[in-house]
Amino acid sequence: MIGKLKGTVDDIKPTEMILDVNGVGYELAIPFSTYEKIQNEKSATLYIHTIHKEDQFRLFGFYSKIEKDIFKSLINVSGIGPAIAISVLSGITPDRLIEAIKSQNPLLLTKIPGIGKAKAEKLVFELKRKVQHLEKIAGYSGESHSKTSDAVDALVVLGFDEKISSKCVNDIVKEKGDIGIEEIIKSALKMIS
Questions:
Q1: How wide is the angle at C-alpha 128 spanned by C-alphas 122 and 129, nearest 5°?
Q2: What string of H, E and C letters represents the secondary structure of 88-100?
Q3: Average pLDDT over the chain, rounded to whole?
Q4: Quick check: 63 and 45 in contact, CB under 8 A?
Q5: Does residue 120 register a pLDDT over 80?
Q6: Given 3-state DSSP classes, what are the helix, strand and coil percentages for the chain, each rounded to the nearest 5?
Q7: What is the mean pLDDT of the segment spanning 39-65?
Q8: 135 neighbors 98 (Cβ within 8 angstroms)
Q9: pLDDT tens-digit series, residues 142-162
């Protein structure tokens, strides 16, 4: 079983890459969130999940252990395969996924390509029982996340991309610490514009 690979980024696309480890090129399926973090890097260290079946042997690479653990939780939901799990990780942050599950709001998930209303409802229903496990994996603490979540929601309502808004808001909160939601939104608008 391969748990982690460190090597040279040989070729990279938004959902797949080849990681050269001492002359051996490993083809990996990756979520867009991982692509964003390593697209301009010459080398990378990725956490690996292996799926081995009769007719296939696939490797999935993740920038963080959190992404890998959430991927494993997603593929344990019946009817959710690795392709959909990668789509979920590509389309929503772990914190927003947890928010959707806790608030039982499948509409947040329907914005992800490949996730229709029925699949979103199934994900929310199935993961509701595992939400405490997911919170532990992601290091989620509802209080600070509700403020960031509200700021992201406000930016999305204004027409900005959810993924970009989420990244901006998280960067602002990390940099400025405990600030009000209005200031978070103002700062995010300056960053995005």
A1: 115
A2: HHHHCCHHHHHHH
A3: 86
A4: no
A5: yes
A6: 55, 20, 25
A7: 92
A8: yes
A9: 545 567 777 887 888 788 887
